[in-house]
């Protein structure tokens, strides 16, 4: 979807256009998923149980989401094929104080007889999940300008009048689940965002699968542009914030 600058902010049109990024907006459909599909929760793609990520104490991590990269379109430097899996530490704070793990699987099979069909560790962490239901992800390409929770927004748009100030959150908040584009920070810009400013995944409040981190919160996974170019997902940064 092509972005149209709101009439109220037309005087900033040229500045706004310089900030435009492509995103893939995510919607969810609750239900069982295939092992290789883009999904929230459920069973990740696994050929061998020994491939399941463990934390620093060798405990199974919490599986959050999986992206089939062939579902995505027009995202700069993003691999066009394979799977990305997102795991966090298993605790009641959704792994906030621990490193996340993002697993990149370059090639995969759709022969289900060769794959693990049920998540062997979900019972260990299901009470801590920030959503209620497994679901399939669907994507829609979008253009979006910089969002006002980003610290650079106020630097670029210095001098907004009172009416513009009152409306900026309606037009530039960045809420919603997506890959690419700009994040929505519930409290303030993440400390990771300056050096890891590519939004690899944002999961925001929604009703279909019951996503919510803490009290009306969301989560973000960030990667640096250089790491994304090199397909190096070993240093992805994870943050979640709530009200």
Automatic annotation (TrEMBL):
InterPro entries assigned: DUF1963, YwqG-like_sf
- Signal sequence segment: none
Top-level taxon in the UniProt lineage: Bacteria
Q: Which PANTHER family does the entry link to? A: SLL5081 PROTEIN
What is the name of this protein? Answer: DUF1963 domain-containing protein
Q: Which organism is it from?
A: Clostridium botulinum
């Amino acid at each position: 979807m092509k972005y149209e600058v709101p009439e109220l902010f037309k005087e900033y049109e040229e500045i706004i256009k310089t900030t435009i990024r492509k995103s893939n907006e995510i919607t969810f459909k609750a239900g069982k998923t295939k092992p290789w599909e883009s999904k929230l929760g459920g069973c990740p793609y696994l050929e061998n149980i020994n491939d399941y990520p463990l934390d620093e104490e060798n405990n199974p991590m919490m599986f959050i989401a999986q992206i089939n990269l062939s579902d995505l379109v027009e995202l700069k430097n993003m691999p066009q094929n394979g799977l990305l899996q997102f795991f966090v530490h298993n605790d009641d704070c959704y792994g906030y104080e621990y490193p996340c793990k993002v697993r990149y699987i370059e090639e995969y099979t759709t022969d289900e007889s060769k794959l693990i069909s049920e998540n062997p560790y979900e019972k260990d962490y299901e009470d801590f999940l920030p959503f209620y239901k497994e679901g399939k992800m669907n994507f829609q390409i979008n253009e979006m300008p910089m969002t006002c929770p980003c610290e650079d927004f106020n630097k670029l748009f210095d001098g907004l009048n009172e009416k513009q100030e009152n409306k900026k959150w309606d037009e530039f908040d960045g809420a919603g689940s997506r890959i690419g584009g700009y994040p929505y920070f519930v409290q303030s810009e993440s400390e990771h965002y300056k050096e890891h400013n590519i939004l690899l995944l944002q999961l925001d409040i929604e009703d279909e699968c019951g996503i919510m981190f803490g009290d009306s919160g969301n989560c973000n996974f960030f990667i640096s542009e250089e790491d994304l170019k090199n397909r190096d997902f070993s240093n992805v940064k994870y943050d979640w914030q709530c009200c």
